[in-house]
């Protein structure tokens, strides 16, 4: 078990088109992307448990990954 990074996996992409009369038409397209290496989506897809460090300001750093790794070090699958 290892800590993972948060993979945003934005699945929907807006499609804005100028209608020509001062208005816009909006559509949505599915935008599938491969899972990021070492990310939580990759872990879940492989049948593993994803453990991603989080912080209140969504700005995790090396200290957060070290803290998470030490917390899960004693866990056994």
Topology, element by element:
Blueprint: E1 12-18, E2 24-30, H1 40-45, H2 62-72
Antiparallel strand pairs: 1-2
Please describe what this structure looks like:
There is one protein chain. The protein is α+β, with helices and mostly antiparallel strands. The protein is 22% helix and 18% strand. The protein is built from 2 helices and 2 strands. Strand 1 (12-18) and strand 2 (24-30) form a beta hairpin. The radius of gyration is 18 Å and the shape is elongated. The N and C termini lie close together (7 Å). The mean pLDDT is 81.
Strand tally: 2
Structural class: alpha+beta
Terminal residue distance: 7 Å
> Helical proportion?
10-25%
Give the H and E element order: EEHH
Query: What integer value in Å does the Rg equal?
Result: 18 Å
Shape: elongated
Strand content: 15-25%
Query: What number is the mean pLDDT?
Result: 81
Sheet with most strands: 2 strands, antiparallel
* Number of continuous helical runs: 2
With strands numbered from the N-terminus, the spatial order across the biggest sheet is 1-2
Provide the low-confidence segments as ranges: none
Short description:
This protein is α+β, with helices and mostly antiparallel strands and 77 residues long. It has two helices and two strands; from the N terminus they run ββαα.
Which terms would index this structure?
77 residues; alpha+beta
């Amino acid at each position: 078990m290892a800590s993972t990074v948060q993979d945003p996996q934005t699945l929907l992409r807006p499609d804005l088109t100028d209608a020509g009369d001062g208005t816009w038409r909006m559509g949505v397209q599915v935008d599938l992307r491969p899972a990021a290496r070492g990310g939580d989506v990759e872990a879940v897809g492989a049948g593993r448990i994803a453990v991603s460090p989080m912080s209140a300001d969504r700005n995790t750093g090396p200290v957060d990954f070290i803290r998470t790794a030490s917390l899960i070090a004693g866990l056994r699958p």
